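Newbie here. two chains, one complex. Structure please?
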Amino acid sequence: MTSASAPRLEFWYEFASTYSYLSAMRIEALAAAAGVTIVWKPVLLGPIFRAQGWDTSPFNIYPAKGKYMVRDMERLAAARGLPFKLPSPFPQNSLHAARLALIGRTEGWGPAFTRAVYEAEFAGGANISERRVLGGILKRLGLDSEALLARSEAPDNKQRLRQQTEEAQELGIFGAPTFLAKGELFWGDDRLEQALAAAGK
Amino acid sequence: MTSASAPRLEFWYEFASTYSYLSAMRIEALAAAAGVTIVWKPVLLGPIFRAQGWDTSPFNIYPAKGKYMVRDMERLAAARGLPFKLPSPFPQNSLHAARLALIGRTEGWGPAFTRAVYEAEFAGGANISERRVLGGILKRLGLDSEALLARSEAPDNKQRLRQQTEEAQELGIFGAPTFLAKGELFWGDDRLEQALAAAGK
């Protein structure tokens, strides 16, 4: 199978998103089993939410929905053997993590970095907006944290993330995780299996 | 197993809700296989949505989400061999159908009536706010449609539906379908299997 014809699935995720955490932790094993290549696409939901009149997560705007989400996450995480604790504040500011993940995607350490950030945030209770937290994660991956933090703030990298977020809006993405297979959107960790099947068809 | 100890699951549904249609069509077979008794609870989401500042379905307020929902429903319905077409107008006014379903729950024809209403609405393109449509469904079930339509408008029955909707709000229900098993909420057709497992434990 050539690379051009290999089935691929875009994984659009937001570091502040609880359900994106669930997908990030399992997507590589499922994709390998399905013979599908994953394209990791970090995105910021903030601008997308603001465009529809929200100034924070819908789980904060609608308390009944937020309370339910925590319980739903607790049950799903427990069933998968994952720790879960809602971080404080919620949602976390994911800007710096997303900028770093964009570099990691090009350089091959994006998936490992992404999972480590999610674990720090939703299992470890760390604040992922902090340079110290992100720098520690990069170091543990054997990377040059100072250089990467500096590069992530370069104008061209900032611009790449803005473009990626605009691309998400143009695709009609309104939440995370969202999977894109052959031009079709699949929203939510609940749709990961269906999206992989669509990509592989 | 005595009736007191028989596992039970409350199925809170809204006649205007697309995903409630999916659950209504499959819940009895799944519940029978799991040995769980279903308690059918028709509810109006209108007052619940208005309490959080919405004057229509979130699928109308947020067009990207609405467009996605239709595609998601098309895929799920196709996979299950169900027809699906978004009715016009959407959402339908479900007040009269819900009042009738409350009577049907007491008299034993609630599940059959509920499925017939969903089929008329989402497969047949009928407007379920019309007495003519609801009366036709009642007749086809061998029921006295004129008497039932009149009884459904009696003050005590109207009050029962208001009370049931208030009960939903007190439970923290914010969307449909929602399943209640042993005091825990499970939201969405995607959680039906999990809810049945929780009820049967």
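Moderator note: The longest helix of chain A spans residues 18-34. The mean pLDDT of chain A is 95. Thread marked as resolved.
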